[in-house]
Design goal:
The complex is a heterodimer of chains A (about 350) and B (about 350). By secondary structure, chain A is mainly alpha-helical. Chain A has one domain: Formate dehydrogenase/DMSO reductase fold (Up-down Bundle), CATH 1.20.1630. Helix content of chain A is about 75%, strand content about 0%. Chain A is built from 14 helices and no strands. In chain A, α3 crosses α6 and α9 packs antiparallel against α11. Chain B has about 350 residues and is of the alpha+beta class. Helix content of chain B is about 25%, strand content about 15%. The chains are: A mainly alpha (about 350), B alpha+beta (about 350). Chains A and B meet through α1, α2, α3, α5 and α6 of A and α4, α5, α6, β6 and α9 of B.
């Protein structure tokens, strides 16, 4: 179909540039990529989805180990956060009335499609479990009421089993884009997000549940906060040029506050939240705020990384140069091979 | 036939890498050859007939009538309301071995770099990094700076002889690349974006719900959501005209055949010959962009002959479809999810209330 000469000419663009010092150039400083059209609703959903997932896990555990207050708080918050998150998702669409078009297809290459189906599987269980908690006393003895209460445990468990997917898929949702700050962070982002989810859900548990039952919430919050802080630090250390999108400007300020609040919440939980309800509430609120600011900060870093063409051009130019250096050294023998043919 | 192809095609071709027959891979059993554009910027004269023809045929709304201070480019960039965009770059060097005709004249440096600097500074202050330009005017405080607006004088005609320079004007009609592995198509959660029988990528306007995922999925910054409409918009490679056996409006309107339309295989051979010819004529800077099926997006359906590095035209130098790393992303997510569940179980195992 195509002879070798044609093929080699088609590759021209990649081989005639020799590895050398390259000044950064752009088209009038204009962005190469389009900044995300998503608004604050998307980071708000990331937070709400994580909070819902963490709460569902705590509620199921509380159900199985006989902690009614934690169970009740977890089930109700899981549903509330999920409903809020779903509202944010629909509100951010360009055509909100067409939200159900998401259900036309199931598409493995689109994390948003995968997420749609994860939420579709997660929602009913969380809904039934929360409904059984919110059931008015008058209806509890009726047949539907009894049925609902009977179903609440398996429903809550099904939600808890899917919850890790809800908490982690959102990291893939952001990374499966051309946005440098999100794409390059794909190894650490899921850990930041699940950590943040556990910290927020544990924090909410500490706020809503009496000290005697909040033990698992405290531990969940501490594990989550520690994981979030560690993954976030690791991410910053490993990233190349695009680290600057995280460590400068608005994203940096948001993430600094996220870190301060999460550290404060973590210390408060470890030191005082076991003995004092006030300390538990304060620490819980700090963890919730830290988690929210972390999501906002990561979102903002992504937006910033699309606005400056440097984050796109410089690493790609470097990659081209790196690929060509070994290629030019190997050019001799391979050239001979192709010679006679 | 297509089953054979799918069996023999390597599995890496599914998400990234070379894909010999992208149309068959999308499920078309019997289909026309893959069609595309070869845009030869060495013969572009910057007339913008392509921009106008595209708008007229596709009923694309205007995006403001503004002066952007970017040479003759007052469109800015590709976007929801710009499906063809002609870029203008002024450079102080000769084109190939061309004689700029300035040897005996009192000339000086053009305002090229100065203009570019002014625009770049304003761009950094724009809310979407300039992505909204073309739809809203560039905010510059009046009278404060020389914008370097194009003039009808030769570059630097007022300046003294000692500072004379050569000059070349690069013009390039940019368009959606119709990638072999299209980031926008991969992430679309509604199926609104689809691969046509011609191997092109098109948004179905009755399906798109404006989720905006494709905007961030495109490594070239082509597709965008139209304000007020809420749906994603981009070049369709005139799908309706193709169905009717016509060539796309921009190619039809191009007076210099800078925009060439045809079967991709044919265009690639023609482009290779053209590069060779230009090299022989001394235009050694000529190179193809997006023509290599081994590149990060598996090659473009619409590719280009450029006379400088891609980033000078606002193109990414080595774009990669985000989907290439999708398996790795899910592996990390699965690890994080397992850790999350394990933490959730462990906190209840202590038995202490």
């Amino acid at each position: 179909m195509m002879n070798t000469r044609t093929k080699s000419l088609l590759r021209q663009s990649r081989t005639d540039v020799t590895a050398r010092e390259f000044p950064f150039r752009s088209y009038y400083g204009r962005a190469v990529l389009k900044p995300p059209v998503w608004k604050w609703e998307i980071p708000a959903y990331l937070f709400a989805g994580g909070l819902s997932a963490g709460s569902a896990v705590l509620a199921a555990g509380a159900d199985l180990t006989g902690r009614p207050a934690l169970r009740r708080a977890g089930r109700v918050s899981a549903l509330t956060a999920l409903v809020a998150g779903a509202y944010f998702l629909v509100a951010d669409l360009g055509r909100p009335e067409r939200f159900h078009h998401m259900l036309r297809v199931a598409k493995p290459t689109s994390p948003m499609s995968v997420g749609t189906w994860i939420l579709a599987a997660y929602g009913p269980g969380v809904g039934v479990a929360a409904a059984s908690e919110l059931l008015p006393a008058a209806l509890r003895r009726t047949l539907p009421g009894r049925l609902l209460r009977l179903l609440s445990r398996p429903a809550g468990l099904s939600g808890a089993v899917i919850a890790p997917g809800v908490a982690s898929y959102t990291a893939v949702l952001l990374s499966q884009t051309a946005v440098p700050a999100w794409h390059e962070a794909h190894p650490e982002l899921p850990f930041v997000f699940t950590g943040s989810a556990a910290a927020s859900a544990g924090g909410l548990g500490m706020v809503l549940v009496p000290l005697s039952e909040a033990g698992p919430a405290r531990q969940f919050a501490m594990l989550g906060a520690a994981a979030e802080l560690a993954a976030s630090r690791l991410m910053e250390q490993r990233l190349g040029l695009v680290r600057q999108a995280y460590t400068t400007g608005k994203a940096h300020r948001l993430r600094q506050w996220a870190q301060r609040l999460t550290v404060a919440g973590l210390i408060g939980t470890a030191v005082a939240a076991r003995r004092s309800q006030a300390a538990a509430v304060t620490s819980g609120l700090a963890l919730l705020a830290g988690s929210l600011l972390q999501r906002l900060g990561i979102f903002e870093a992504g937006v910033a990384s699309t606005k400056d063409p440097r984050y796109v051009v410089v690493p790609q130019r470097q990659r081209v140069a790196d690929e060509q250096q070994p290629a030019s050294r190997a050019a001799g023998p391979s050239g001979n091979e192709h010679g006679p043919s | 036939m297509s089953a054979d192809h799918n069996l023999s095609g390597n599995s890496s071709g599914l998400l990234s890498g070379p894909e010999a027959d992208v149309t068959a891979a999308a499920g078309y059993l019997d289909h026309p050859p893959r069609m595309g554009f070869f845009t030869d910027t060495s013969v572009c004269i910057g007339c913008k007939a392509c921009e106008v023809a595209c708008k007229e045929w596709n009923l694309v709304p205007d995006d403001g009538f503004d002066l952007l201070g970017m040479s003759m480019d007052n469109t800015g960039m590709l976007g929801a309301n710009t499906w063809r965009h002609v870029a203008f770059i002024e450079q102080e060097k000769p084109l190939g071995q061309q004689e700029a005709g300035v040897a005996e004249l009192p000339t000086g440096p053009s305002a090229t770099e100065q203009a570019a600097d002014v625009v770049a500074t304003a761009m950094r202050q724009a809310p979407r990094g300039g992505a909204e330009l073309g739809t809203s005017p560039l905010q510059v405080s009046p009278g404060s700076r020389d914008l370097g607006m194009p003039s009808f004088q030769r570059p630097g005609a007022d300046a003294e002889t000692q500072r004379r320079t050569d000059f070349r004007w690069l013009m390039m009609s940019d368009v959606c690349k119709h990638c072999t592995h299209a980031g926008c198509l991969d992430v679309c959660p509604t199926g609104a974006l689809f691969r046509t029988e011609f191997g092109t990528v098109v948004v179905q306007q009755d399906i798109c719900n404006g989720c905006g995922y494709c905007v961030s999925g495109c490594p070239y910054g082509v597709i965008d959501r139209r304000p007020g409409d809420g749906r994603a918009q981009k070049c369709t490679l005139c799908y309706d005209r193709l169905r009717g056996g016509l060539e796309p409006a921009c190619a039809k309107a191009c007076p210099t055949e800078s925009i060439q339309f045809g079967p991709l295989d044919e265009l690639r051979e023609r482009a290779a010959r053209r590069v060779e010819e230009l090299h022989e004529r001394g235009v050694t800077e000529a190179r193809l962009y997006g023509a290599d099926p081994d590149d990060g997006v598996g090659g473009n359906g619409a590719f280009f002959l450029l006379l400088d590095e891609p980033e000078v035209y606002g193109l990414p130098p080595d774009p990669v479809v985000p989907t290439r790393d999708l398996p790795a992303m899910w592996r990390y997510a699965a690890m994080a999810a397992s850790a999350f569940l394990a933490a959730g179980v462990s906190v209840f195992l202590g038995g202490r209330r």
